[in-house]
Amino acid sequence: MTKIVMATNNAGKLHEATEILAPLGIEVISQKEAGADCEPEENGSTFAENAMIKAKAVYDIVKMPVLADDSGLCVDALDGRPGVYSARYAPKGSECETLLKEMKDVPEQERRASFQCVVAYIDGERQFTVCGRCDGNIGFEKKGTNGFGYDPIFMYGDKSMAEMTADEKNEISHRGKAMKALCEMLKK
After folding, report:
1. What is the CATH number of the domain that holds 19?
2. What is the DSSP letter of 82?
3. Residue 1's pLDDT is what?
4. CA 64, CA 3: separation in Å to the nearest integer?
5. Domains held by the chain: number
6. Choosing from 37, 60, 70, 151, which is the catalytic residue?
7. Taking a C-beta distance cutoff of 8 angstroms, is the pair 148, 71 a contact?
8. What does the pLDDT read at residue 25?
9. What is the CB-side half-sphere exposure of residue 74 using CA atoms within 13 A?
């Protein structure tokens, strides 16, 4: 089984990556498990720049294949915000409430949004990025208990991401699509 280090300390992201890559015979381990105790500053202006910053920082420590992602929620009515600042948009745990408050007067037909993800990969010989996107809408209230972050307010059809099973979410999510694109690149 091939091992890849995921440059994250986020258990939710690690779990999603593990579920998607395991069928390819890839074991995903956290940066902490690999001995990389670092928190690189995500000071890029794009998801791709931030993903590569994290991947390079961890690769420089562990010298084994590394993947890193940067992702966020882009809301049309907010000119793409919170975007690359999604994790820093509001105090941890209050992201959904903060966004719902900011969008309280936005009508249903103007609540389009997308989750976007870029995965960076480095293995010493190759380095590249792949992208994934999931389009939906911002709901009016939190729904569901699965997932993390903005999942309870991101509506895909009539379900929030937090109401989906892991398999349903991985099939349509931005991170799921980016990981599938990574799988295709790794097969080459």
Report:
1. 3.90.950.10
2. B
3. 61
4. 8
5. 1
6. 70
7. no
8. 87
9. 17
Sign of the Cα torsion 144, 149, 155, 161 reads negative
Closest CA to 146 of 123, 118, 173, 116: 173
**CB 51, CB 17: distance < 8 Å:** no
Q: What are φ and ψ of residue 12, in 5° steps?
A: -65, -45
Annotated active-site residue 70? The verdict is yes
| Block residue for tokens 């900011």 | 102
**Distance from C-alpha of 96 to C-alpha of 3, rounded to nearest angstrom:** 34
The pTM (predicted TM-score) of the whole model is 0.88
Segments forming the whole domain that contains residue 65: 2-187
- Radius of gyration for the alpha carbons in the chain, expressed in angstroms and rounded: 16
CB 69 within 8 A of CB 120: yes
Per-residue pLDDT tens over the stretch 67-101:
999 999 999 999 999 999 998 899 888 999 999 99
Mean pLDDT by 10 residues, the chain (188 residues): 87 84 89 92 93 96 95 96 92 93 96 97 94 97 90 96 89 89 84
CA distance 169 to 126: 29
Structure tokens at 58: 């961890």
